[in-house]
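Researcher: Let's try something more involved. This one mixes different molecule types, so please make sure each is placed in the same coordinate frame as the others.
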Amino acid sequence: MSETAADAAKSALETETAKPARRAPAIRGADLLHALLLLLAAAGLGLAANALSRKPLPLLAADGPGALPELAPRLSAAELAAVKNKAGVLMLDVREDKAFARGHAPNALHAPITRFLETMIGAEAGARVAAAELVLIVCDSGTCPAGDRAYKLLEPFGHKNVRVLEGGWPADEASGLPVETGLKTDAAAPKAAEPAKSEPAPEAKKEKEGVAQ
Amino acid sequence: MTTDALRSTAASEGGALALIAPLVRVMLGGVLVYAGVLKVNGAWQFAEEIANYRLLPAQGSQILAVTLPWMEIVVGMLLLLGLKTRAAGIGALILFSVFAAAVLSALVRGLDIACGCFGTSDAAKLGLQTLALDAAGIAGALLLLFARPKS
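Model: All components are placed in one shared frame. Result:
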């Protein structure tokens, strides 16, 4: 190779290495097309697997499992104070253990949404719901899809007066009514002003006794 | 400078990215396969979890519930095996971007719902940590696309 040709090759390589941004592979149209085809093929696999499964998901059913959760009737935070301490009102707390242990209404029935039915088929929990005049579902916040789900799951129990607390636990806590901390058994019988019985969560141990707000 | 030396210099450019790219590819693939496999047998429950995001009509949630897990599995497997990595990388980028948009939209609307990221076994609530996971997925996919040579 002549010296001139070698210089030209060197110069070309230097120019190339001086522009690393241009060398970095960008997303090309062909790559994007391949990716979309890949996703489409995978979607086809999913549809085929569903069609061949023993319990296929009804894809086009308007009332299938993908239907928007039915919104349960709400009880406003303003109405809460008036009903909360009345006999026959059962606070049904569907929050998870940690949140429940941080604070809950005295005598609340704890039935986390992740094990709701498991809790509700317990004889005492079922009896408490059946005996209540009003079941007030408490969840984490105002939108409360867990409350809507619990409302739906309570339907077979035949209770007529079930409401979801608007604003969830923050609204309950802000109402200034007594608050208990710690976990207690789901089926604990209601006894007014009795503190939580079962072992409290570690973070709530120090605050075992009731905290009035 | 000799041509060989120049080639060597060029090859070492972006060396750190090139070194971690295979690791990122395997991690991204592993997460996607894991998430997809956990969802694939729980389509009914997954459809409910998609519906909780309140973004799609029932049919959309149901179709997504049966197709999304397979998209994750196929894209994840390709990344794990190092096949069609550019297409799979773009696929991962699309998936994580869609997840991030859905999570962000739910957070903005104050929805307190389960993430559903890892199927029905995942009772974790949607939160900023979910958004961080999706952002990490997007960053990983971008790294793969810009650190790897064309294949």
